[in-house]
Amino acid sequence: MQNKDQTPIVGAILLAGFLIAGAILLKGSSGAQAPTNIPGNNKAAVAGNPAPVSKDDRTLGNPNAKVTIILYEDFQCPFCGAISGLVPANNSLIQSLKQRDPSWAPFMPEILNNYVKSGNVLFVYRDFPLSFLGPESVRSAEAARCAGDQGKFWEYHDYLFGHQNGEGQGAFSDPNLKSFAQKLGLDTTSFNKCLDDSKYAQAVAASEAEGSAAGVTGTPRGFILRNGKVVADINGAESLTTVKPKIDAALK
C-alpha cells in the first residue's frame, strides 16, 4: 500500500525506490506498507465505514448484489497498477512482489471476470489521490471523470493504469491526458474543456475527504461489504490468493 501522509522528501525517496525494482517494498520502508499477503504480515483488521454507494459512484456489476467491493485508488500509484493486472508482468514492482510471494497474482481480473460479470459482486471505484505523488494524481482522476461524461470512464481507467510511467514525472500531464482521450476516440473538444475547467476537482476532493473519514491512508485500500456491512478489507497490493477467500466468505 502506498501511504498518503508523507512529506515531499519521503515522496522523493519513494520515487527513486520504485525505479530500482521495488527496493522500498523489499526493505519494508515506512514510505510504503508491504502488502498484507506477504508471509508474516497477514493483518486482517477491519476498520472504517465507507460512505454508502450512490448514483455518483463509478460502478460495475449488479447494483443489487449481496456483496460490494469499494476500492480507493490513485492512478499514479504503482501498487494500484500492480493489482489491476494491466501492467506488464515484467514490471519491477510485480517482480518484487513475486520474489517475496511466488503465488502473488493481481486480484482485479478475477474479481471482474468471475464475480462482477456473474452478478455476484458490485465493484465500486473511488478516487484517493496521493498528494505526495504530485498534481498528476488529481488531474488523472479528474480526466477519468471527464471521460465518464462520454461513457468511457472504464476505458480511460484501464488506459491510465496500463500506461503508468513513473510518479510525478509528466506521464499524466494535461497534454498527455488529452492525448489519451483522443486515442480512445473521445470528443476531444468536450473532454478538453471539462479538464481545463477542472469540472470534477470538487468531486475528486470530496472522494478523498470521504475516504480519509473512512480511515483510508493509502492506496489501494478496499472494503468488502455484505448487505451494506463491512465484513473484510483489502489492505495494499494483496494477492488474489488472499483476496479471493475473503470474497468467497462474504458470499456464503
List keywords for this structure.
alpha+beta, Glutaredoxin, five-stranded mixed β-sheet, two-stranded antiparallel sheet
Topology:
Blueprint: E1 2-3, H1 8-18, H2 23-27, E2 58-60, E3 67-73, H3 78-84, H4 92-100, H5 108-116, E4 121-127, H6 135-148, H7 153-162, H8 174-183, H9 188-196, H10 201-213, E5 218-219, E6 221-226, E7 229-235, H11 240-251
Parallel strand pairs: 3-4
Antiparallel strand pairs: 1-5, 2-4, 3-6, 6-7
Helix pairs in contact: 6-7, 6-8, 6-10, 8-9
Structure characterization notes:
With 252 residues, this protein is α+β, with helices and mostly antiparallel strands. The protein is built from 11 helices and 7 strands. A 5-stranded mixed sheet has the order 2-4-3-6-7. Strands 1-5 form a two-stranded antiparallel ribbon. The protein is globular and about 50 Å long. 46% of the residues are buried. Residues 7-45 have low confidence and may be disordered.
Quick recap:
43% of the residues lie in helices and 13% in strands.
Fraction of residues in helices?
40-55%
> CATH class, anyone?
Alpha Beta
Q: Write the element-wise H/E pattern from the N-terminal end onward.
A: EHHEEHHHEHHHHHEEEH
How many H/I helices? 11
Question: How far apart lie the N and C ends?
Answer: 28 Å
Number of strand elements? 7
Form type:
globular
Strand order of the largest sheet: 2-4-3-6-7
Structurally, the number of domains stands at 1
Sheet with most strands: 5 strands, mixed
